[in-house]
Amino acid sequence: MPDLLQIEHIRKTFPGVVALDSVSFSVAPGEIHTLLGENGAGKSTLMNILTGLYRPDRGRMLFAGREVRFASPRASLACGIGMVHQHFMLVPAHSVFENILLALDGVPGFFSRRRFRARIQQVIDEFDLGLDLDSPVWKLSIGAQQWIELIKLLMRDCRLLILDEPTAVLTPQESERLFAVLTRLREQGKSVIFISHKMREVMEISDRVTVLKKGRSLTTLVRGDFDQARLAGLMIGDDQVPQWQKQSRVGDDVVLDIRDLSVRNDRGLADLDSCSLELRKGEILGIAGVAGNGQKALAEVLTGLKKAASGMILAAGEDITHSSARSSYIAGIAHIPEDRKSIGIAPDLSVDDNLILKSFKQPGFRRWIFQDRAAIRRNAREKIAQFAIKAGPDGAPVRYLSGGNIQKVIIARELSENPAVLVALYPTRGLDIGSAEYVHKVMADGAARGMSTLLISEDLDELLKICDRIAVMFRGRVVGCVDPRRTTREAIGLMMSGEEVA
Ligand SMILES: Nc1ncnc2c1ncn2[C@@H]1O[C@H](COP(=O)(O)OP(=O)(O)OP(=O)(O)O)[C@@H](O)[C@H]1O
Q1: Which residues are in the ABC transporter domain (predicted)?
Q2: CA of 40 to the centre of ligand 1 (A)
Q3: Dihedral pair phi/psi, residue 459, rounded to 5°
Q4: Does the fold of domain 250-332+421-496 match that of domain 5-239?
Q5: Domain boundaries in the chain?
Q6: Is residue 17 in contact with ligand 1, taking CB distance under 6 Å?
Q7: Looking at ligand 1, which residue's alpha carbon is closest to its atom 31?
Q8: For residues 151 and 134, what is the distance between their CA atoms, to the nearest angstrom?
Q9: Is ligand 1 within 6 A of the CB of residue 309?
């Protein structure tokens, strides 16, 4: 059968950066094709070309045998290419049905509306999605909201679906359901481009894998010809994955004692609801939970971005909930925020400047009242090499970096001062395996030195591998605490969905 999509020698440059040098690969009808590549390899740029956001400098694309050039996202969608975005484009107050209607060009009349509703229901039943068309979107889980995005594309008869890190916000059970749906779609002859850094998923779902490296398509491998080690080796080089060993040295001292802590959001609702937790010296305490169950509020109240409505935070036994000691305590905490682009970095400043945002007043970076640019550059060079940051031309704004590389800049900055406490929200989300392992190594080394880490993550493999304990959050509370050596992904997954409280 002829290929549905053929990409030939695509090149795309930005000022001073070759994002894609020469990329060629094809997607067959009824195929799940994974794109794998380290941070900055060019995956997002390629998807932006496929979905009509960017135009390539060179090369050609054929879709269903016809050469295509997309002048806009609308043109790509009209052709049958749809992307399930990471940031859902849904109106929370509207119903599922209304949100799907909104995605169409023009509102159908009453009768066609009924027919349309019946068609959507058919899709829901066929894929066993269990969605209520009349439920307002804000009441739905993140997993259910992703179904809506998928249905929108299916209603538009998309033949090629692009999913970029779709499981980042799902429970293990929801991920399994997503994979079942993708398998069904494949059986129906739909094609999928799947992007993920999670090797377990890549192994489970891919028919073929194309490895991108430095803007070039290195190779395409067929199922049966690849395993995790081979893919990792191709992507980042066999000797590039940092090796580390966890040496558990959890002390008796409680460095943070959170007691019945509640935090309200702007609407006055409790994001954190009587949450209690203890973090010990040298401990890596994992927080599992589906995004939106209070993890972010917990990190924000600990790092001074939000105030506690009630309850207590004790640091080394001292109540700092509202005291003046709180600000100096917070100043010493390292924080890797969830929102990289608006909280984590100053987007228009260079990589060099972003790396010293917390330490620019230090004598090492000053000469009299002026900045010591040579020292700042030296520091940046060191960190760029240490964290393998793909930084682009000197002085370029950090917002031009790929998502994974922006994350590396934040981590390099936050961990450079040997903090006593690290609060990390999804620190390895979107990082390639080499970089994720480096972050794990940094945390393990930090723990051996006595650093205490609150690691909020949706990646259960990560939590099970690196944590001393895992607390599970559901609806603003800790609903259970488990020992990673005596639990399973499934057990944690059930707790995450509120089905079982340990
Ligand atoms: N608008 C832009 N201006 C300048 N450079 C850009 C722009 N968009 C991407 N780049 C650069 O192109 C390269 C490829 O980036 P891209 O975002 O496609 O990588 P990626 O494989 O998706 O990475 P990640 O896994 O980190 O998301 C990077 O070096 C990035 O800095």
Answers
A1: 5-239, 256-500
A2: 5
A3: -95, 100
A4: yes
A5: 5-239, 250-332+421-496, 339-418
A6: yes
A7: 401
A8: 15
A9: no
Q: Is the ipTM of this complex over 0.90?
A: yes
**Minimum-distance ligand 1 atom for the alpha carbon of 42:** 18
Distance (angstroms) between ligand 1 centre and the Cα of 391 equals 10
The first and second tokens of residue 98, run together, are: 């209304």
Residue nearest to atom 12 of ligand 1 (CA): 19
User: What one-character-per-residue DSSP string does 19-61 give?
Assistant: EEEEEEEEE-TT-EEEEEE-TTSSHHHHHHHHTTSS--SEEEE
Gap from CA of 145 to ligand 1 centroid (Å): 27
Residues 310-359 have pLDDT tens digits of: 999 988 888 888 876 677 677 778 888 887 666 778 889 999 999 988 77
Which single residue is written with the structure tokens 């006593």? Answer: 420
Digit-coded pLDDT (tens) for 402-453? 888 898 899 889 888 788 899 999 898 888 888 888 889 889 988 988 999 9
Task: Please state which CATH number belongs to domain 250-332+421-496.
Answer: 3.40.50.300
Residue nearest to atom 16 of ligand 1 (CA): 42
Supply the pTM of this predicted model: 0.81
**CATH number for the segment(s) 5-239:** 3.40.50.300
